[in-house]
Design goal:
Order of helices and strands: HHHEHEEHEHHHEHEEEHH
Structural class: alpha+beta
Radius of gyration: 18 Å
CATH class: Alpha Beta
Number of strands: 8
Strand content: 15-25%
CATH architecture: 3-Layer(aba) Sandwich
CATH topology: Aminopeptidase
């Protein structure tokens, strides 16, 4: 079981989209009329988001195979968290009771990212962090067992492929991975790439609302939790860091609190993602 991708690969995206007041450590919403440039950028991105990126629920076997293939590309081929599989599909026993979301780049029809929300229907169906990281769940009041099975979920397997993570600025920073080819993606489209990771979190949040599973858990690196905190998604640590595919800790959030903590730009982005996922 892996939670989200490494903070090394997501921190930059999240920090680039964070309001500057949040980056200074202020987690409250900016005062009216004092929105930061980054928050204004989030509003601008939200306005045109649907022109370039389309969030989707993977309901068919064909779509799920596409998701598993992307996960294999990221987790097995790029990050080498798992051995490569002969069928190029990365999947496990939790996928059968998970809701799979992906974000598709409309210009190329490629998947730009994916995330899943693992559910439970009875006490015998444990979340991955219960099954594999139970010793790290030390917060008695926010343990998954404190809630009904149908009230809990776990965000897992967030993946963004390298083509949608790299930056044109990589070549100037001396990064060996190289730059995105502008013949593939326009300058306007490149502006949206830092928002793919945060949009996947918005999709996961939207899925908790749709299923009314508001008690949300995740195993992730503390640095990633801090980065999410910058954009107004305040996960609470519920146990110590352990060695689990790197240093990770369990976190909890009641997703009903998120909307009030987001700045207007991110609330707009969440609304757009919700509409795209569930309007059909």
């Amino acid at each position: 079981m892996k939670g989200t991708m490494s903070a090394e690969h997501l921190n930059k995206e999240l920090l680039e989209t964070a309001p500057r007041s949040h980056q200074r450590g202020i987690t409250a919403n900016p005062s009216p009329g004092k929105s930061s440039l980054a928050s204004d950028e989030a509003l601008a991105i939200s306005k045109h988001f649907s022109q370039y990126l389309q969030p989707q629920i993977a309901l068919t076997d064909e779509y799920k195979q596409e998701v598993y293939n992307l996960r294999h590309q990221v987790y097995c081929e790029e990050l080498h968290y798992e051995d490569e599989k002969s069928d190029h599909l990365e999947c496990d026993e939790f996928d059968e009771r998970a809701i799979h979301c992906c974000i598709r780049h409309l210009g190329s029809a490629q998947l730009a990212g994916t995330v899943r929300l693992i559910t439970a229907n009875n006490n015998s169906e444990l979340l991955p962090l219960q099954e594999f990281c139970s010793t790290a769940l030390t917060h008695a009041d926010l343990h998954p067992q404190r809630f009904l099975p149908r009230q809990i979920c776990e965000i897992s397997r967030l993946a963004v492929p390298a083509a949608f993570r790299k930056r044109q600025t990589d070549q100037f920073a001396g990064v060996a991975t190289g730059a995105i080819n502008e013949s593939t993606f326009s300058v306007q489209e490149l502006r949206f790439f830092p928002y793919i990771a945060i949009s996947l979190y918005m999709a996961a949040i939207a899925m908790t609302y749709k299923t009314r599973r508001f008690h949300t858990f995740v195993m992730m690196e503390p640095r990633l939790a801090r980065s999410l905190n910058f954009v107004g998604i305040h996960f609470q640590p519920i146990g110590p860091c352990i060695e689990y595919h790197g240093k990770r800790a369990p976190y909890y959030i009641d997703s009903r609190t998120i909307k009030s903590e987001l700045s207007p730009g991110y609330r707009k982005l969440l609304a757009i993602v919700q509409t795209a996922l569930f309007s059909h």
